[in-house]
Amino acid sequence: MLTPKGVRVLEYNVRFGDPETQVLLPMVADDLVPVLLASAKGEALPAKLNFHPGAAIVIVLAASGYPDSYAKGDTITLPTTTPERSAIVHAGTKRAEDGTITTNGGRVLGVSGQAPSLQAAADLAYSVCDQVHFDGKYLRRDIGHQELNR
Fold first, then answer.
1. Do the Cβ atoms of 115 and 121 come closer than 8 Å?
2. CATH code of the domain covering residue 49
3. Does the pLDDT at position 17 exceed 80?
4. Domain count, the chain
5. Which end of the chain has fewer CB atoms within 10 angstroms, the N or the C?
6. What are the phi and psi torsion angles at 79 (to 5°)?
7. Which among 137, 129, 130, 92 has a CA at the least distance from the CA of 112?
8. Which residues contact 128 (CB under 8 A, 6 or more apart)?
9. What is the pTM of this model?
10. Residue 45 near residue 106 (C-beta atoms within 8 A)
11. pLDDT confidence of 14, banded at 50, 70, 90?
12. Would the pLDDT of 22 be above 90?
């Protein structure tokens, strides 16, 4: 995080957490399964991974009130299709008995976009976010703003 006193580390993850992984994995050009399998077996890993050119961004769609108390059980309406190089990753969701998808956590969905530029990736991700509906949907519209406003 950039602060008036310089760069500060808030958190350092060495696990595949979300939403961090949701933005990184789409950028990996190599088949990750053999790499993960080799890692799990303690075998030699490749010296490097290849990445797609461009940029990626993930926007978290959260339930109103997150990270404190938030409602559960609100019906989620998802787009029937998503554009190429975008994805919707379920986090705090649940399939109701009638088959509908409902909210079941604070961080409900992660919407990622991948494109040649960060601005294009953000435009893509936000366009998908705007097609997702549930009561109390909250998202930040300033993700990546420091890079986007240069």
1. yes
2. 3.90.600.10
3. no
4. 1
5. C
6. -65, 150
7. 129
8. 79, 82, 83, 86, 88, 111, 113
9. 0.83
10. no
11. low
12. no
